[in-house]
Design brief:
This protein has 330 residues and is mainly beta. Helices cover 8% and strands 61% of the residues.
């Protein structure tokens, strides 16, 4: 009988040790090395690396569009043409706590070549636009912001005409590198909001705006082109401005719209507006191919446009481009 009791006691002792082993909890040791938290569990080392917040967002888009028409012995008439337009957009946006800083650079260039004319290759597009906005948050959607807006062209532009009774075309230079160029600096109240679909809206009203018109070409400055005093290269103005922009607005599936408008009024002639409007509708076929409809409208009462009859007058400047080609986001 004692033999069975001994065996039964040994069985209970082993069973109790098994239960204790199952209920045993291992508490990991915590070690700090260079600010990183390391957890040690037995012979295993668990590294808990904190997630680093990203303050900068950068990217851009490049597009290239080519059109070619080649005719040979074509009974219906016409001429061979070649057209090329290309554009590059870069952006860098910063956000940390109550500070925001958005910067964007847009550059586009286009040429057209046609065989049956005296000046075969002509510029069709030449735009350079840089805008940078720094703001401090006042409330959820309102910021105190300072914005720098610079617009220019890089190549000479010409007016082509054919004098009466002549078979030869002539051209007159009407613009050149930084002729004109526009720099506008403004400080004011900025309303900005980002929606769930990542579309954005921004409106900045600035009662403190300085605008500078630059004409570096001496032959153009001597005749007072683009509103500068004859012989001067820079015209400075003080006034009020309103700038508004929308970005990545989803019109339909794979169709987005972005646009910006800038209005400026000189305090000396308050109420007369300088208008700069840009619009881009992008219809995306896939990640490499898209169609772009670009519209630019400018009105400046200090700019006089030479007409075909030889006179010059104030007029709305309008540029519209429809492009189909390569489009790369990065």
């Amino acid at each position: 009988m004692s033999k069975y009791l001994l065996i039964y006691g040994l069985f209970l002792l082993c069973f109790s040790h098994t239960i204790q082993a199952q209920d045993r909890q291992y508490i990991p040791d915590t070690v700090l090395i260079n600010g990183d938290t390391l957890l040690m569990l037995g012979d295993s080392l668990i590294i808990d690396v904190p997630v680093k917040e990203i303050f900068w967002k950068t990217g851009g888009n490049y597009n290239l569009n080519i059109q070619q028409v080649t005719l040979s012995n074509w009974a219906a008439g016409g001429s061979s043409t070649f057209a090329l337009t290309s554009g590059l957009t870069l952006y860098a946006n910063y956000k940390k706590e109550k500070k925001v800083w958005d910067t964007q650079l847009t550059f586009s260039m286009g040429f057209n070549r046609q065989d049956n004319r005296d000046y075969k290759t002509r510029k069709t597009n030449d735009n350079f636009h840089f805008v940078s906005n720094y703001g401090r948050e006042l409330s959820e959607f309102f910021y105190l912001s300072t914005q720098l807006d610079a617009r220019a062209q890089l190549l000479a532009g010409y007016k082509y005409s054919r004098p009466a009774g002549s078979d030869v075309e002539v051209r007159t230079r009407i613009s050149n590198l930084l002729s004109p160029g526009y720099v506008q600096s403004s400080t004011g109240l900025n309303y900005r909001k980002t929606y769930k679909d990542k579309s954005k809206i921004s409106v900045i009203l600035s009662p403190f705006t300085g605008r500078f018109t630059i004409v570096l070409d001496d032959s153009l400055s001597r005749v007072g082109a683009f509103g500068v005093t004859p012989g001067e290269n820079v015209r400075a103005e003080a006034g009020v401005s309103l700038a508004a922009s929308v970005t990545d607005i989803q019109l339909m599936k794979n169709i987005t719209w972005k646009s910006d408008i800038n209005l400026f009024s000189n305090y000396e002639v308050f109420g007369n507006m300088v208008v700069n409007f840009n619009s881009v509708i992008r219809m995306k076929v896939n990640k490499f191919i898209s169609t772009r409809i670009e519209t630019v409208m400018i009105y400046d009462e200090n700019v006089f446009i030479k007409q075909d009859d030889g006179t010059s007058r104030q007029a709305v400047q309008l540029q519209n481009l429809v492009n189909f080609g390569i489009s790369l986001d990065f």
